[in-house]
Amino acid sequence: MGTREVQAVHRPAIEKVALADCRLLRPRGLEQHVAIVTAGIALRRFPTRVSTSLGICLKTGSAHDVVADGRRLVFPADAISVRPPGCVWSSGRGINGFVSVVIAPEVFAGVGIRGSMTFLPPTALPRFTLLVRALAAADSSLEADEIVTRLVTGVLDSSALAADVPNDGNAGRHAVDRAREFLHTRVEEKPTLEETADAAGVDKFLLLRYFRRTLDTTPHTYLVMLRINRAQELIARGTSLPEAASAAGFSDQAHMGRWFRRLCGITPATYRRALHS
Length: 277
What we know:
Layout: H1 3-10, E1 16-17, E2 23-25, E3 34-50, E4 54-61, E5 64-68, E6 71-75, E7 80-83, E8 88-103, E9 118-120, H2 128-137, H3 141-157, H4 172-184, H5 193-200, H6 204-215, H7 219-236, H8 241-247, H9 253-264, H10 268-276
Parallel strand pairs: 1-3
Antiparallel strand pairs: 2-3, 3-8, 4-7, 4-8, 5-6, 5-8, 7-9
Helix pairs in contact: 2-3, 4-5, 4-6, 4-7, 7-8, 7-9
C-alpha cells in the first residue's frame, strides 16, 4: 500500500454538525409549512434541540445513540425515525445519510398527535422514498398537501404515534360525493386539500382515506382527470394546445402534456392529429 493510500485510510473524517451541507427544499404551495431535508453519507451529530414540527426521517447507515425527552435510545441502522412536535432530542456521532420530511403542526391542525420519538423499519412506510420524490416534484398545493397527508396518515396507521382523528365511516360516501361536486366546479382553479375537505364536511385525513377507499384514487388525481377530459373537449373543437392547457386549468402546455401522456398514452399533439386526420 502506497503512502497516499495509508494517509487516506487514517485521515480523520470531518464531522458535520446538524444541517451543515444538507439540502433543503420547500414543496410548492407549502413553502411555509413543509421542508424536505436530504444529506449524503457523512460523520454527523445533532446538538440538543426541540422539534416544533413532526419529523419523519429515513436514515441510511450505521446505528447510533440518540437522547429523546430524557430517554437514551439507539437509532437502528437503516431505519425511520418519527419525531413528534415538542420532542427534545440530540443525536450522537454516526456515519449516515438521510432523507427527512419536516411538517409544521398547522398542516395537521385539529389532529392531536401524541407520543415520543420512535423508530420504524423501512417496511413500515414502504412508499416513503417515492412519496418524498413526488412531494418534491408536486406541481400544485393540492398535490403537495395530499402527499403530506398520506405521509402523516402512514405514520398514524403504523401506530408510531397516537392521534385524535375523527372517525365517521358511515359518512364516507357522502363526503366523497360532496368533494367530487366541489372539484367539478373548480377544474380551472387551484383548490387546496383544505378547501376540498371543507366542502366535503370532513377532516382532510378522512377525506383522503374515503377517496382512496371509494374511488381508488385521490382528490388531486381526480381533478387532473377532469382537466384532461376538459382539454380533450377543447382540442376536439380546434382550440390550440396552449389555449386548451390554460382553459383546462393546467399551468402550461408542458404540464398538460405530462399528464396527457400518463393518462391517455399519447401526446396532445398526437391526439389532435388523430381527431383531424
